[in-house]
Amino acid sequence: MEDLASRIAAYLAHRMPAASGIEVSGISRIHGGASRETFRLRASWQEGGARIERALILRRDPVASLIETERDIEYNAYRAFHPTGLPVPEPLYLETDLQWLDRPFFVMEQIEGCAAGSPFNADPYGPLAEKIGRQFWTHLGHIAAADPHGIGFAANMEEIAPDECWKRELDKWEKVIDEDELEPQPIARAAIRWLRRNPPTPAERISVVHGDYRTGNFLYDGEGNIRAILDWEMCHLGDPLEDVAWAADPLWAFERAERPGGMIAREEALRIWEEASGLKADPVRLRWWEIFNSLKGLAIWISSGKEYQTGANRDPILAFPSWYCTDVHNRVLAHRLAELSKEARA
Amino acid sequence: MKPDVGTVMHGFFGTLLGEIAPHLGAEYSMGNVGIMGMMMYMVAEEYDRAADIRATENREMRSLFSHAATLVTEPALKAKLSSAAAEKETSLRIQALNARNAALQNLLIELQAHAEASDAGWARNLEARIWDYLVAAAERRKLPLPSFG
Q1: Residue in B closest to A323 by C-alpha
Q2: Which of A25, A112, A133, A211 could form a disulfide with A234 if both were Cys (CB 3.0 to 4.6 A apart)?
Q3: How far apart are CA A8 and CA B75, in angstroms?
Q4: What is the mean predicted confidence (pLDDT) over A34-45?
C-alpha cells in the first residue's frame, strides 16, 4: 500500500499543478468491488496558502473481473448525473495512461459516514427500509426520466431503437453464456428460447439504464437518506424496465419477491417508479425483463465462476456468486418458466 | 473420518467469522474471510449430499429419456435417448458423476427444445414432465445461506 500511496500522490501532483506537498494516507481496499479494484484514501495538499484534505475513491481495472466493462462508461455516467442532483459521487479524474498505476483507473469523491445494505441479509435496512425504499424507487424513476442526450450520457454510447433493446441485451448475455459456461445450463437455455419466442413490445422510451441498480449498490446515511448511487459499470441506453426488473429481482431480496430489495412492497415500489418516471410498468413487458434479468444474472455468475476456475482471478468474491447466486437464479427461473410453459400449453 | 466434515466446516465457519475476522485490520481481508466462511458453511452441506444429488439427477434423467424414447419419432434423437437411458454409473466419484451429468443435461436441452417445437399430442405432457424434473432438481441443489439479519 505504501508504494501505491506514493504513486497516487505522484499522479495527483500531475493532475493538480497548483498543489504542493501532496500526501496520500489511509489507503484501504474495499471488499466487493468485483469488476474494479476499489480503494478508499485520504489526500491532503497545500494550495493557496491553505492545507486541504479530501477523502477519495480510486477505482482501478483488475487483471480479470466479474463483469468486463469499460471504466470510461462508468466515469461518464457519474459525470452526466452529478450535476442533475441525483446522488452520485463527484467524478474527478479518468486515467488510461498505464504509467501511473499499471492499469486504467478513475478517481472520485468519497461519500463518508454511509453504509451499503447487503442483499444476503434478510432485513438489510431494518427500520429505515420504508424511507430508503421510497427514495430508491424515486431515484430509479428519475434515471429513467432523464434525457440521455441532454445530460451528456449518450455521448459515445451505442444508440438503440425502442424495438431493438431486448434483442441486443439478450444477444449480449447469451454470448457470455456460450463463451463461459463450464457445464450445460438447461434452465438458462430454456429461458433463452422462451425470451426469443415471446419478445416484448418496444420500449416506451430510450432511457439511461444503470444496469446494476439494486440493494448493495447505493450508500445511505444513519437517517436513511440515500447519499450515493454507485456501480454504473454496466450502464447503457435501453428500455427503462430493464432496471426496474433487475431492482425487483428476488435475488436482491433474500428471495422475497413481494418486497424488492428488502425495502417496500412491490406494488408501492412500482407506483412510485411510475410517478417519478412518467412511464408505465406494463406487467407483460415487465415480466419479460424480469425473466431476462434472471438470465443475465446467470450469465454473470457463470462468467465469474469461469474466472475463478481457470485461475484468471482467484478473488473469493468471484467464487461465491457462482455457487449461491446461480442456485437462486436457477430456482427462480425454473419456477417461472414451468408456470409459463403450462399456461402456454393449456 | 471424524470429526465429520460438516462439523469441521461449521466449526471453521464460526472460527473465521467470530474469532479471526474481528482481528483483521484490512477491510478487504475481512470481507474475503467472510465470503470464505460462508462458502465453508455451504461445503458442509454439499459434502454430504453431492454424490446423492448427482446420482438422483442422472437416474431421473435416464428414466425421462426412457419414456421420451417411446414418444419421439425423430430417428437420431430417439437413438440418443435410448442409448442414454440404458447407461449406468461406473463410478460414484464426483468428477465421474459430473461428467455423466453434463452429458445427460446436454441431451435434456436437446429433448426439451424438440418438445417445445412439436405440436404432437405427447409434447405437452413431456414438456411438463421435463419442467417438473428441472424444478425438483433446482430445489434439491438449493444451498444453505447463514442469515446475519
Answers
A1: B143
A2: A211
A3: 66
A4: 89
Q: Provide DSSP, A265-295.
A: -HHHHHHHHHHHHS----HHHHHHHHHHHHH
Q: How far does the CA of residue A319 sit from the closest CA of chain B (Å)? A: 9
Within a domain: B145:
no
What span, in angstroms and rounded, lies between the C-alpha atoms of A78 and A153? 9
Closest CA of chain B from A236, distance in Å: 29
Q: Give the one of B30, B31, B148 whose C-beta lies nearest to A121's C-beta.
A: B148
The per-residue pLDDT for B26 is 87
CB crowding B17-51: b at 16 or more within 10 Å, else e = beeebeeeeeebebbbbbbbbbbbbbbbebeeeee
Q: Which position has the grid cell 433463452?
A: A192
Best CA proximity match to A39, nearest among A118, A101, A87, A113? A101
Q: State the helix-helix crossing angle for B94-116 and B27-69, rounded to 10 degrees.
A: 60
| CB contact (8 A) between residue A187 and residue B138 | yes
The nearest alpha carbon in chain A to B106 belongs to A184
**pLDDT band for position B54 (50/70/90)?**
very high
Displacement of CA B42 from its chain's centroid (Å): 14
Work out how many domains chain B is built from and give that number. 1
Question: Is residue B147 assigned to a domain?
Answer: no
In this prediction, residues A302-331 reach a mean pLDDT of 94
Is residue A65 pLDDT above 70, yes or no?
no
Contacts of B132 in chain A (CB under 8 A): 338
Angle at A116 between CA A262 and CA A144, to 5 degrees: 70
Which residues on chain B are in Cβ contact (under 8 Å) with A120?
Answer: 38, 145, 148
**Rounded distance between C-alpha atoms, residue B3 and residue A287, angstroms:** 48
Among residues A64, A130, A67, A84, the alpha carbon closest in space to that of A269 is found at A130
* Cell numbers for A74: 462508468
Say which amino acid occupies A176: V
CA angle (B22, B27, B31) in 5-degree steps: 75
Listed in sequence order, the residues at least 6 apart from A221 whose beta carbon sits closer than 8 Å to its beta carbon are: A113, A114, A227
Pairwise CA distance, residues A260 & A267, whole Å: 10
SS3 helix, strand, coil % of chain A, rounded to 5? 45, 15, 35
> What range defines the domain where residue B132 resides?
5-140
Residue from the list B28, B34, B42 with its beta carbon closest to the beta carbon of A30:
B28
The rounded distance, in Å, linking the Cα atoms of A236 and A34 is 19
Residue B149 lies in a domain: no
Domains and their CATH numbers in chain A: 2-109 (3.30.200.20), 126-345 (3.90.1200.10)
A338, B135: Cβ pair inside 8 Å? Answer: yes
Q: A134-159, pLDDT tens digit by residue?
A: 999 999 999 999 999 999 999 889 99
**Residue B149: pLDDT band by 50, 70, 90 thresholds?**
very low
Kindly state whether residue B118 falls inside one of the protein's structural domains. yes
